[in-house]
Amino acid sequence: MSISYKKISQIIGPLVYLKNNHDVQYGEIVKIHINDGEVRTGEVIKMDEDVVMIEVFEETRGLSAENSEIFFSNDTFKVKISKDMLGGVFNSLGQPIDIHTRKVLSSDVLADVKRDINGSPINPFAREYPQDIIQTGLSVIDGLFTLVRGQKLPIFSGQGMPHNDLAAQIVTQAQVMKKEPFLIIFCGIGIIHDEAISFIDKFQKSGNIQNIVSFINFADDPVMERLMIPNVALTTAEYFAFEQNMHVLVVLIDMTNYAEALRELSAAKEEIPSRKGYPGHMYSDFARIFERSGMIKNHTGSITQIPILTMPNDDISHPIPDTTGYITDGQLVLDRDLNKKEIYPPFEILASISRLMKDAIGADTTRSDHADLSSQLISSYSNALDVRDLISIVGEDSLTMGERSLLRFADAFENKFLNQKINENRSFDETFKRAWEVLSKLPRNRLNRIHQKFIDKNYNRGV
Amino acid sequence: MTESNNNNIGFISGINGSLINIKGIETKVRLHDLIKVNKHNIIGEVIQIYSDFVVAQCFENTNNLKLKQKILYLDNPLSMELGPGLLSNVFDGIQRPLEKIFQEDETGFIERGIELPSLSREKKWKFTPLMEVNQIVSGGNVVGKVQETQSITHYIMVPPNINGKITYIVKEGEFAIDEEIYRISNGEVEKSYDMIQKWSTTRSRPFHKRLVPNEPLITGQRVIDLLFPIAKGGTVAVPGGFGTGKTVTQQAIAKWCDADVIVFVSCGERGNEVADVLRQFAELTDPRTNRPLLERIVLIANTSNMPVSARESSIFSGITIAEYYRDMGYHVALQADSTSRWAEALREISGLLEEMPAEGGYPAYLPSRLSSFYERAGIIETIGNDGKKNNNIGSLTVLGSVSPPAGDFSEPVTSNTKRFVQTFWALDAELAYQKHYPAINWLDSYSNYPQYIKNWWKTFNLNWDEINLNWQECRNMMNVILSSENELKNMTQLVGEENLPENQQLDLFTANLMKESILIQNAFDDTDNFTTPTKLLAMIQLILLLYKEGKQLLEEGFIIKDIKDLEIIAKIQRIKNSIPNEDIDEIERIKDKLLNEINSLRRSYRVIR
């Protein structure tokens, strides 16, 4: 039986203080019953012999020292997980919701298991080094920055850039190459209503909804829930990956909202701020989310993460992208100039990298010329961008033939390879075909990063 | 609990994150001693002592703990278990055996409260005694040996601060590490010893005396060995923003450097990186012994998602293990990737303690903690040397990488680290973008070791007739040419390279040749990944010969294009990945060809004239 308390001694921001006089567990979940019938949830985050500090998940508005009764649950927060969750939409507490009304559906999930959302760290020795791939159907990712199962590959975007379209496209198109069980978990962190509805709408129309589990935390939901939802989503992912042996792709959008919530709560707790007011433990908090990806020896499943974040003021050295870049296995950066040129997806090629790609691509998974192709495309495009800069100084007339061919290549690369429609799903073969097509704009002898036998086979074919 | 150890029991009086307050042991406990939460099997370290309670920092999360729960005072600080079985093993920050944990818990996760001995008690080692009964011994004396891996002999030493006469020692045979091996009597008491030593992580192990470093740690990385060398027993910091190749540089050094034992501490980094390191070290062979590299490596992996307090301990755990092998007379390299994550752990704990922050939120004692880490490096004469070992000199080289936020080297961890290290390899994002790896910026980096190690290099002099520079002369000339290029860079952008004077164009050309053929090195190419001192001297002298002859040619009235058009230059550029280390003769043939081409250039010119 749980014990109830009638008297709150202090309320400060999201924190409620109680006089401590029974054996509370650290991290214990409490229910706060307000006399108008409303129930809120909180967690014990600090205690000593006199006082228990409780962080309330929902808002603390309407609470008073007199009107509430507090029940201790005798347990830490656990989320219910079930195989029936496929195709459903859930809130931060793992309850099924109706996306249009935001109401919690009374039909509670029949739980197969209940899990602590903080999980346990994966034993570094038990990790399998990721060496197989996921196809996203986007040429730029599949061709140049291939997504590897078990990888965490963030997308650095900015306000007004098409990261939502990109997220939806990846969720609806992603697939594993062999016929292995595959599941996508979509986790919206502090996203606005219209976006949320449009996401779910797209998923339903894709015909793939049975393979998608969505978790949504709305922008006006309480901040505390914002901090929980990635862990709820990832606990679910761990169940499906390592107990049901599925390959799980988790898309987290937008991690910037998570970091803002972290800062807000940190300030409420009067913690000592570090860079730009973000708490010093932000690195560990991010790491605890991002490290819940990977593969484990003797298990066939995997968790792959695509966290999406918006860089404040497009500043890649801002603490949020900076911290993320250090922990993740690469990064994909969106570029505002390309976006203005109506190139979609507008990837900043030179700033992007997939660190696990080199060991995962090749004849066994994609194609034998893949590594050479991606290296050549990136290096030629980099040279071409230098030539574009040169034009602004010397003018187009004084360019050499070689420089002109680079310009033609860059235009073709942007329009034929990079650019694709938001519902266009390209196979690897299609991507490679386009890669050769744009590389054929360059003279044969400029393809110094590609093995001769591949050039002989593919150069200028079908053009 | 029995009456007698009642003093060792306390109880929880408060919980805040990983910190717990404990009452009941405050009069007894020493700072940095360990405690254990009995019910959940969680270990913690005492970090503050007040008059009526103590504060301990737990190495695992504190969920479900309650006030009034029993705390056991363990009466010992965090100590490493030192003995056979450390090599090729993987531990977390407080030396829990991760491979063993995986065998016990095949889900692959680390559940809370796992308690296992750090070193296997089941495994039997073949012990060979090197001492006899009645011999007088003191701390550091070698009583016997164990072949720990095929590459490394593990010397069983008398623990520091122990003196006396051996009263018993086993005959050669198979023993587990906790079985009795020998007994020592100091005249009054006889004590029994096994193969295990325990040593607190925060105290450095004693040595006889410090020596002056005089030998380089050869890394096989050309930019390091030539321009920014590190001495055995030296210290180096490797700072770089994300994507600048810190980890690849550290891994390349772990693979190729000529230390006997490597302790690799992955501190707060990615799990997939640890998986990658393990996979590579198991597959690669040590070029000197032809055995798997893993046989000379101890890996400490406390990834970013593992408890912060264990992360804080991890680099001191690593350096204690490294000192232990140093005491056997080995050259040991400790690599910590990354010390910034360690400093952040320090900051996190300091924040929980509500200490007054200094710069960047880091505690004011950050510099003193950093110095207590880097100052444990050094080349030393071991204690207890008795002629039984091949060598009584051991060294501990410390290589710490730093991850400055936004690549800003003025932040507290980088700037304070610079105060305590002798070598600084500044990794540069711009070079990394240009795919210039290792992205060590030759203008911002420095090394204070050349004067110490220049004599060592003299044995590698090639004594070529046409050019005979020693290592120091080579690096001086290279530095002059590279800095000349830097000065000319702005001018070049304004007026264009072809409008510079010919001899300046030669500087630019030579600098570029140096960058392409010496500084850029492919860690993934089978020939290029490692360059021996001899090949390195041959390569640089070849370029300097070309430079010298080029100057001569310009004086004789030739133009820079004549030099650039020499056919041999393409060959010089490819020496790094086309000519194996052993084949110095082939480089000499290229040198002869170079001279031939220059001579025929002169002849043809005379004909035209």
Note down, in words, how this protein is organized.
The complex is a heterodimer of chains A (463) and B (609). Chain A has 463 residues and is an alpha/beta fold. Chain A folds into three domains: 4-76, Thrombin, subunit H (Beta Barrel); 83-357, 3-Layer(aba) Sandwich (Rossmann fold); 370-458, no CATH class. Helix content of chain A is 32%, strand content 23%. Chain A has helices at residues 139-144, 163-173, 193-206, 223-242, 255-268, 282-290, 319-327, 336-340, 370-394, 401-418, 428-439, 452-458; strands at residues 4-5, 8-12, 15-19, 28-34, 39-48, 51-56, 68-76, 78-81, 89-90, 113-116, 127-128, 133-135, 147-148, 155-157, 175-176, 182-191, 212-218, 247-253, 294-296, 302-310, 330-333, 353-354. In chain A, strands 9, 11, 14, 16, 17, 18, 19, 20, 21 and 22 form a ten-stranded mixed β-sheet that branches. In chain A, strands 1-7-4-5-6-3-2 form a seven-stranded antiparallel β-sheet, with no helix packed on it. In chain A, strand 19 (294-296) and strand 20 (302-310) form a beta hairpin. In chain A, helix 2 (163-173) runs parallel beside helix 3 and helix 4 packs across helix 5 (255-268). The longest helix of chain A is centred in the last third of the chain and has 25 residues, at 370-394. Chain A starts with a strand and ends in a 5-residue tail after the last helix. The mean pLDDT of chain A is 90. Chain B is an alpha+beta fold and 609 residues long. Chain B folds into four domains: 6-77, Beta Barrel (Elongation Factor Tu (Ef-tu), domain 3), CATH 2.40.30.20; 96-200, RNA polymerase II/Efflux pump adaptor protein, barrel-sandwich hybrid domain (OB fold (Dihydrolipoamide Acetyltransferase, E2P)), CATH 2.40.50.100; 209-450, P-loop containing nucleotide triphosphate hydrolases (Rossmann fold); 461-608, Bovine Mitochondrial F1-ATPase, ATP Synthase Beta Chain, Chain D, domain3 (Orthogonal Bundle). In chain B, 34% of the residues lie in helices and 22% in strands. Chain B has 16 helices and 26 strands. In chain B, the strands form five sheets. In chain B, strands 8, 18, 19, 20, 21, 22, 23, 24, 25 and 26 form a ten-stranded mixed β-sheet that branches. A six-stranded antiparallel β-barrel of chain B has the order 1-2-5-4-3-6. Classes of the chains: A alpha/beta (463), B alpha+beta (609). At the A-B interface, strand 5, strand 11, helix 6 and helix 7 of A face strand 1, helix 1, helix 4 and helix 6 of B.
